[in-house]
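DM from R.C. (forwarded with permission)

"hey, sorry to bug you on a friday — could you get me a structure for this? deadline for the figure draft is monday and I only need the backbone to look sensible"
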Amino acid sequence: MTEEASRMERDSMGDVAVPAGAYYGASTERARQNFPISGLRLPRRFIRAMAQIKGAAALVNSELGLLEAQLANAIQQAAEEVEEGKFDNHFVVDVFQTGSGTSTNTNANEVIANRANELLGGPLGSRKPVHPNDHVNRCQSSNDVIPSAMQLAALVAIHEELIPALSYLKEALEKKASEFMPVIKTGRTHLQDATPIRLGQEFTGYAGQAERGMARARLAAEELADLPLGGTAVGTGLNAHPEFAQRVCQHLSRRAGVMVQETKNHFQAQATLDAVLSAAGALRTVAVSLWKIGNDLRWFASGPRAGLGEITLPEVQPGSSIMPGKVNPVIIESLTMVVARVLGNDATIAVAAQSGSIFELNLMMPVAAYSLLESIGLLASSAQNLARQCIDGIKATERGPQMVEQGLMLATALAPAIGYDAAARIAKEALANGRTIREIAREQTKLSADELDRLLDPARMTRPGMEAGAAGG
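My reply, with the result:
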C-alpha cells in the first residue's frame, strides 16, 4: 500500500505533513492526530452555522475597512461553499477534542482560507494572500464563535425541524380526538378503573402536550438567539471592532432566516452553557411528553386478546421470528429509544454546563453542541414518524365502550345522591359478586329507574353538569 501524498505546512509549533488534497491545514492535522477518539464529527448544521458566521464576518470586516474587498469576497464565496456542504469531508476533528472547540474553529478557518486562496489562484497550504487567523478569524475567537455556532445551529434546527414536527403531531392528534370523541370508555388512575372518559378527551390531552412542547421549544429558541459573538477571548471583546458583532448578527439574521442578536452580557454568555442547558431542559420535557403519549397508546393497544385492546395500531411489519402473526408496536418502541437517548444527552449537557464552566470559559462545548443538535433532530424525526406511521392509522375497537357498564367507579356518580359510604358498599358488593353497579343500586337504594339511568349515564359523566344529549350521546 502506498502512502498518501502529503504537503508540508508550518504552524506556530513547527512543520506538519498534511494530506496533499486536504483543504484543512497544519493545526487541524495536529488535532486530527491528537483525538482519535470516537469517529463522531460535529453535524452538518453546526458546520453550516460556522460557515455562515465566517462569511458574515468577512462581509462586516470589509464594511468596517478591516479587510480588503478582494480577500473578503473570496472568503465569502469559500464560506458559502462550506455552508452548502461542499467541504464536509474536510472537517475531520473528533467531537471529543479541546473543550473550547478551538480545533473545530481552526478547521473552519483553514478550510475557508485554503479555498479562498484557491479561488484567488494560489495553492493549498500557502496561507497567502488569505491567512486563516489574520483574515478568516478576524475580530473573532474560538471562545465566542463556537458557542455562537452552537446556538445558531440549534435555533435554526428548532424552527426548521422540531416545531414543524410537533405541529404535525399535534394536528394528527387533534384529528383523532375529534374522530374518537363519541367513544366512551373507562378512565384509569393508579392503573385501576376510574370514572368514564371519552377516548377523544384522552387524545385532546396528548394534543395539548404537543402544543405545549412547541411553546417550550419557542421559549428555548428565544434564549439561544442571544449570541456570544463579539466577546472574543474572555468576553471583553479584545481585538474586535465595537460594531462587529451587532453587524454580523444583522447579516446572520438575513442569511439564516432567524432573528439573532449580540448578547448584552458577554461574560455570562461565554463563561456558561446556561442557554444551551435551558434548551436541553425544554427538549427533555418534550421527550418525556412523547414517552407518555407513546406508552399510553401501546397499553391501549395491548393484546389484541389478552390485553386492553381498546385501540388498534397500524400494522407496519411482522413482530416475531418465531410467533406467526404477531405484530408489535415498533413505531412507539423506536420513539421510546429516542427518548432514552435525549435524556442521556440532557444529562451530558448538564454535566458539561456544571463541570465545564470554569472562570471565563466553558470547556465542554463540542460535546454539548453534538448532544443538543442530536436531540433536536431525533425528537423532530420521531415525532413526525409517530404521527405518520402510528397516530394517523389508529382505530378504536368496541372493547372500551363494552366495558363501561362493568366499571365499578360508576358508583362515584351515586355518591352525591346516597353518600360516599353507601356508594362504596355498592361498589364492593358489585366486585365481590361480579354484578354491575346499576344492578346493586336498583336493589339497595330508593332511587327510581329514571334517576339511576340519569346518574349512571356514562356520557353525562364525561361532561359534568350537562345532560346526556348535550354531551354528544
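R.C.: lifesaver. The chain is about 60% helix and 10% strand.
me: no worries. Confidence is low (pLDDT under 50) at residues 467-473.
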